From TrEMBL:
CDD domains: ligand_gated_channel. Residues 40-68 are annotated as: Disordered. It comes from Sphingomonas plantiphila. Its main location: membrane. PROSITE patterns: PROKAR_LIPOPROTEIN, TONB_DEPENDENT_REC_3. This is TonB-dependent receptor. Keywords: Cell outer membrane, Membrane, Receptor, Signal, TonB box, Transmembrane, Transmembrane beta strand, Transport. NCBIfam families: TonB-Xanth-Caul.
Length: 990
């Protein structure tokens, strides 16, 4: 986004203090009538009994029903406006801080993605997949990823992604009933999220008795992918008398996206020698660690950062998803309801990537110009090889969950609910190869004295290279006669997550007092395994680039039939400064590997170009082997007991609602890994930058731990006037460590590079993050369908997990490039610091009478006492991730069956994580920052009658690009240009 627009938006955010608030209606009411039907709501809802937070469809249905039944003055509202008003009723009567988004009707959810809808709420921001542009995760009040728990109908979801959070792009949105975001916990449901708990509620047969059908069909196109791809869904529901009901739905979703990307895969920190710097007059330059005999000009004493790997690629992504649901309900009497349901989803994301890349080693850099921060903004590297890569990546995520829920009304005052579920998720379950890679190019005798130049900030410029091409001849950049085979990497991550859960709840109600009590049990078992050609060293089988590069290994030239054209890199990222080489090749990694396999078995015949000096056991096929260091089993058992008391009274004649809860969680953890130590390291005969690692025997390592925490919460609401109330909430919540951090093994990977030796170690004794949370809110419901609110929050978080990077020797192995003991950069995790996060959410929703016009707006301002210090080059730097000011504005018109809505979403720069794709530096885990973003989306629909409607959607109208940077703003890591997307469709409801 241009600087002027960015500055103007910041002024808008700081000057207006607008906020979105809630969005649409409760599931029961949306289900209860067609979109065109006329609904009655009250302009000023009267006092309501204290309602539980809308954490499940049933609770929200009851709350919304109370608001409707108690109405004193009827105002006729339809469609979106009626939906918004009913949603305000839910928010207003909730015990704690809750926001809700609901479907306007069957199959009419406001956005095409769950996360995209959630970002309309105050305090909620999204993370996008750079390659697809799709929202895949959320951040709530600065806490993202594993800090937020997502539930299906109050149940935890299994996920094989490798973390605890779900990928929201795997959730079909068409037939979702409601999203509830609990920013303060409901102890009867969960207290295991410092950010928020998101409950996704699905419709059930008796939500709307009788025969019902909903169908949706649409086509969408991304402005670079060209092809129109379909999405369609069908829901059928029927009840048979008052006893039995069945609902089934299926959704097929497809998205095709072509994304251009320029990348630097890491900015490691380290020390330069004076002889490497621009203007040096040293006769020779041999950078080395300060030691006796090392001259001052060769001693590496000047701190700085350099790019590890640089390149550009086009990613052609095909995202296909199938969602299916079956729900059966049996009501043998008025006091018993039994629900059996099953949720299934399968997402397959196939990506074809075509790229070039160049690799840099810090000690090989010369004529280095460092800016004031120590970033290498201009340098040359002699003998730089150039690689052209192609990859076919296939990622399959499959989940199936079956649940049984029984509700019994034992008396007018006493009710019981029992809920059990089993779920399992798979990552790459069908034997597919996760990533097939082909790497070709030139180096050695054709390596060039490449120049690298940083020309600006990561938000508007990417680095440039000069003197590229074989031996510096740019005209030969893509000369196929000079290009030979190099490394061949296949790798697949295979995970499973198996989850058993059981919950029993009793509720006693009398007059203005409600007591809810019960217990909950989880058993979650995660299995991780990675297999690759790194493990057996087959990746180097035909490395070396071949004869034109002066090498005896590698096949060159490659058959012309392998090349399928090229992609121009001209104007590759519109609006960005920077120069790229002319093009990248389009070629199939499968065809390339088949060609090399067709050369035969190098163990039974001599094949010129095979890497006999570094690879053994290769018989012609690039088979993957299991990496023992990646094998991990984590079994987590958690027992919880809880009780919550709600009551209503008056203070000086003003209605007062109070909610106090306690929850105790006890967790037993067992972690099992496979350990092995390196015994030797050797250089590759095919490429001087590659290393081969040998290992000792593999041994199982088992570790376990236990912990227990008491988690209280208090919510209070005082209605100072019929249209004005204040809330106060206090609670303690926790977030458990990421699963991959619990590995008891120190792992030295097999795919090592010269000057970039790495290892990582887990810690199964990590304790959860703990947060003491405080909220103070004021809400003014000043007219029908309109409100204004301010909510201040404070979170004191302890047990933060930090990943320090230390340099150390492992098992005494020798680095063959130095003749000295090998020094590894080892990343390990420990509990340590604490931090305070504070912020204000401001929300405003307003409808202009019966004109049909209205808006929703929000702004969130956050801060912390532990910001990132970019001058700290110690090994244990720490800061709170995810914090960023944000703002959203939605303007809409909704009348006479016609609806149009424009949504503007802004988020300031924020620290995403510690760690980069290549994280081999000496100054700890280098950070990844996400640059400021601003996106505009437009949607519209028209109801021909109560059964048929058409809709259209245009996403990313401003062509927002996603970019990230390292420690300093000119250290670009990624810039993705994923373009705009347009959708046109039709809905049917009966």
């Amino acid at each position: 986004m241009p600087v002027s627009q960015s500055r103007g938006l910041k002024e808008f955010v700081s000057g207006t203090s607008l906020s979105l608030g809630c969005a649409t209606s409760a599931l029961a009411l949306a289900w209860a009538a067609p979109a065109a039907a006329r609904e009655s709501v009250t302009a000023d809802p009267p006092d309501q009994p204290a309602a539980s937070q809308p954490v499940a469809a049933q609770d929200t249905q009851a709350t919304a029903g109370q608001a409707r039944d108690a109405q004193a003055e009827e105002i006729i509202i339809t469609g979106l406006r009626g939906s918004l008003q009913r949603n305000l009723d839910v928010k207003r009567t909730s015990s704690g801080v809750v926001d809700v988004i609901s479907a306007e009707d069957i199959g009419k959810f406001p956005d095409s993605n769950v996360a995209a809808s959630l970002q309309r709420l105050p305090g909620v921001s999204i993370q996008r997949s750079g390659a697809r542009g799709e929202p895949t995760g959320i951040t709530v009040r600065g806490f993202g990823g594993d800090f937020n728990t997502t539930l299906y109908d109050g149940r935890r979801i299994s996920t094989a992604t490798g973390g605890r959070q779900i990928d929201f792009s795997t959730v079909g949105v068409d037939f979702i009933g409601q999203l509830s975001v609990l920013k303060t916990p409901d102890v009867t449901l969960s207290s295991s999220s410092i950010g928020a708990t998101v409950d996704i509620a699905f419709p059930k047969p008796f939500d709307r008795p009788g025969f019902r059908v909903a169908a949706t069909a649409s086509g969408s196109v991304q402005d670079r992918a060209d092809d129109i791809v379909p999405t369609g869904g069908l829901l059928i529901s029927n009840t048979f008398g008052d006893t039995f009901g069945v609902l089934g739905s299926v959704i097929y979703t497809r998205r095709d996206t072509d994304t251009n990307r320029v990348y630097v895969n890491g900015w490691p920190g380290g020390n330069f020698a004076p002889c490497q710097l621009q203007g040096s007059t040293a006769a020779t330059c041999a950078p080395a660690a300060p030691a006796p005999g090392v001259t001052a000009s060769n001693a590496r004493t000047i701190p700085g950062w350099f790019p590890q790997q640089y390149g550009a690629e086009q990613q052609r992504v095909n995202d296909e998803r199938i969602d299916a649901r079956l729900a059966l309900q049996w009501q043998p009497s008025d006091s018993v309801m039994v629900t059996l349901d099953n949720n299934f989803s399968r997402q397959e994301v196939v990506s074809e990537n075509y790229a070039f890349g160049v690799w840099f080693n810090q000690t090989d850099l010369r004529n280095v110009q460092l800016d004031d921060n120590g970033t290498a903004i201009n340098f040359t590297q002699a003998g730089s090889p150039t690689d052209f890569t192609s990859a076919l990546n296939t990622e399959i995520l499959k989940t199936n969950q079956t649940g049984l829920n029984i509700k019994v009304d034992a008396s007018d005052s006493l009710k019981f609910e029992v809920d059990g579920a089993y779920a399992k998720s798979w990552r790459n379950p069908d034997g597919n190869i996760g990533s097939q890679n082909a790497d070709i190019g030139y180096g050695g005798a054709l390596g060039t004295n490449l120049q690298f130049i940083v020309g600006g900030d990561s938000s508007n410029a990417f680095p440039s290279v000069a003197n590229f091409g074989p031996a510096g001849n740019g005209a030969n950049w893509s000369n196929q006669a000079l290009i030979g085979s190099h490394v061949t990497v296949n790798q697949t991550q295979r995970n499973t997550d198996e989850l058993w859960q059981f919950r029993a709840v009793g509720t006693w109600e009398q007059d203005d007092l409600t007591v809810k009590f019960g217990g909950q049990y989880y058993q979650d078992t995660f299995d991780f395994l990675n297999q690759s050609t790194f493990t057996n060293n087959f990746w180097q089988a035909y490395a070396g680039y071949g004869a034109p590069s002066g090498r005896t290994t590698g096949i060159a030239p490659l058959p012309a039939s392998l090349y399928q054209g090229s992609i121009s890199l001209s104007d590759f990222i519109p609006g960005y400064d920077g120069n790229l080489p002319p093009s990248v090749f389009v070629f199939s990694p499968v065809a390339y590997q088949n060609y090399l396999t067709g050369l035969g078995n190098p163990q039974t015949q001599v094949i010129p170009g095979y890497n006999y000096g570094s690879v053994t056991g290769f018989t012609g096929t690039f088979d993957e082997a299991v990496d023992p260091g990646s094998v991990l089993n984590v079994r987590e058992r958690t027992w919880s007991l809880f009780m919550r008391v709600n009551f209503k009274t008056e203070i000086a004649g003003m209605p007062f609602y109070f909610n106090a809860g306690i929850r105790n969680e006890t967790t037993n953890l067992r972690s099992t890994g496979q350990g092995r130590l390196p015994t030797s390291i050797a250089t590759s005969t095919a490429d001087p930058t590659l290393l081969t690692v040998s290992y000792g025997a593999t041994q199982p390592i088992v570790s376990g731990s236990d912990y227990s925490y008491f988690l209280p919460s208090v919510d209070a609401r005082l209605e100072l006037a019929p249209d004005f109330l204040v809330r106060v909430s206090a609670s303690r919540t926790l977030t458990r460590p990421a699963l991959n951090l619990l590995n008891p093994v120190l792992n030295v990977g097999s795919g090592q590079r010269v000057g970039a030796l790495t290892a990582n170690g887990g810690n199964p004794n990590l304790r959860p993050y703990l947060a003491d949370n405080f909220d103070l809110a004021a809400e003014w419901y000043y007219q029908r369908n309109s409100y204004f609110s301010v909510n201040a929050f404070l979170k004191n978080v302890t047990n933060f997990i930090v990943g320090g990077v230390t340099t150390q020797q492992i098992n005494g192995v020798v680095d063959p490039t130095t003749g000295q003991p090998a020094i590894f950069s080892v990343t390990q995790q420990v509990n340590g610091p604490d931090a305070t996060v504070r912020g204000i959410e401001v929300a405003w929703q307003h409808v202009f009478g019966d004109s049909g016009f209205g808006f929703q707006a929000n702004a969130t301002f956050v801060d912390t006492n532990r910001p990132y210090d970019d001058q700290n080059i110690s090994q244990t730097g720490f800061a709170v991730t995810g914090l960023a000011n944000s703002a959203n504005f939605v303007g809409f018109y909704d009348k006479n069956g016609f609806q149009i809505r424009a949504a503007l979403n802004w988020r300031d720069e924020y620290l995403l994580q510690f760690g980069q794709n290549q994280n081999t530096g000496s100054f700890g885990a280098e950070p990844t920052f996400v640059d400021e973003s601003f996106q505009v989306d437009l949607s519209t629909s028209y109801d021909f009658n109560k059964n048929f409607s058409v809709f259209a959607e245009a996403l990313n109208l401003t062509n927002n690009q996603q970019s990230t940077h390292g420690r300093f703003s000119n250290q670009l890591l990624d810039v993705f240009d994923y373009g705009r997307r347009y959708t046109l469709g039709i809905r049917f409801r009966y």
